[in-house]
């Protein structure tokens, strides 16, 4: 599914400030996009526009070329929403079932009615993808899981519908470093699924993103590929926030004439690469 925001604006009150102010942006099938920006810059609002949870005040959002206004008038928005998996911030705060398994299968039940076999197959496949076991999920309350496990369960609940596009609002918020890496690893292994991640922490998703879009006061102030961000300091200078250290380090090394065969997404990876280049044994050997 192609999602196009066309000069789209949104505000919460009739005459208040614009939360999203003239954004034009296209998400292509299979694309991996990170949307970043300071608190209040409009990231969550943009995600809600891209999932047709709110309708634009000005401009338009097109889903495979069809206007969201038209889809709303014809009551066909559900067809679009079904193809997108959305995870809002702290999704575990919205758990409400007694067992983790019921939590996981909630949307499947709405969709497949009582076809238990289909439900179980899909649930088992999404769960195993996240290293969760449906047998255990049937026995535990979702509230008794650790924060990292809760987040995995929420991710599995979004993946269970096999969405074409997954939209995630701050999916690493509140997680420890291991949990954050875990979420990024899951997202980067999603195959064909398009992913839009909203985060104020670009570094968590350097290995996931193909493209970085940055919002400020409801406007797009930066839109570039991660490769360009890594390789071209001139483009990186346009990025309005602190560039992650791992990106700056690679720019310095490249500027100093060092050939790095490929990008590194975290300092561990970069140091490992440098040690190899220097002929040192790998860490821990
Ligand atoms: N429900 C709401 N009612 C009124 N204003 C809101 C609401 N949600 C967000 N806003 C305002 O819209 C702007 C963008 O908010 P938001 O999209 O949540 O930004 P971000 O996700 O980048 O922090 C902010 O100025 C915020 O105060
Ligand atoms: Mg937000």
Question: Pairing-aware structural class of the strands and helices?
Answer: alpha/beta
Straight-line N-to-C gap: 47 Å
Strand content: 15-25%
Instruction: Supply the CATH class of the domain at 1-83 and 200-243.
Output: Alpha Beta
Task: State the total count of DSSP E strands.
Answer: 10
Number of helices: 12
The helix fraction, in percent, is: 25-40%
Instruction: State the CATH superfamily name of the domain at 1-83 and 200-243.
Output: P-loop containing nucleotide triphosphate hydrolases
CATH topology of the domain at 1-83 and 200-243: Rossmann fold
Which small-molecule ligands are present, each listed once? adenosine-5'-diphosphate, magnesium ion
Shape: globular
Q: Order of strands in the sheet with the most strands?
A: 6-7-8-3-9-10
| Sheet with the most strands, sense and barrel status | 6 strands, mixed
What is Rg? 20 Å
Please tell me the overall pLDDT: 92
H/E series: EEEHEEHHEHHHHEHEEEHHHH
- The residue ranges in which pLDDT falls below 50 over 5 or more consecutive positions are none
| CATH architecture name of the domain at 1-83 and 200-243 | 3-Layer(aba) Sandwich
For the structure shown, list the relevant keywords:
Rossmann fold; single chain; 285 residues; alpha/beta; 10 strands; 6-stranded mixed sheet; 12 helices; binds adenosine-5'-diphosphate; binds magnesium ion; 4-stranded antiparallel sheet
Structure explained in plain terms:
Among the domains are: 1-83 and 200-243, Rossmann fold (3-Layer(aba) Sandwich); 244-285, no CATH class. It has 285 residues and is of the alpha/beta class. The model has no long low-confidence stretch (mean pLDDT 92). A hairpin with a 2-residue loop joins strand 4 (58-63) and strand 5. The chain is globular and about 60 Å long. Helix 5 (116-129) packs across helix 7. It has 12 helices and 10 strands. It has helices spanning 43-50, 68-73, 77-82, 100-112, 116-129, 134-139, 147-159, 177-188, 226-231, 233-236, 245-255, 267-277; strands at 3-10, 20-27, 32-36, 58-63, 66-67, 84-87, 165-169, 194-198, 211-216, 219-225. The strands form 2 sheets. Strands 6-7-8-3-9-10 form a 6-stranded mixed β-sheet, with helices on both faces. A 4-stranded antiparallel β-sheet has the order 2-1-4-5. The structure holds adenosine-5'-diphosphate and magnesium ion (MG). Magnesium ion binds next to helix 1. Magnesium ion is lined by residues 43-44, 169.
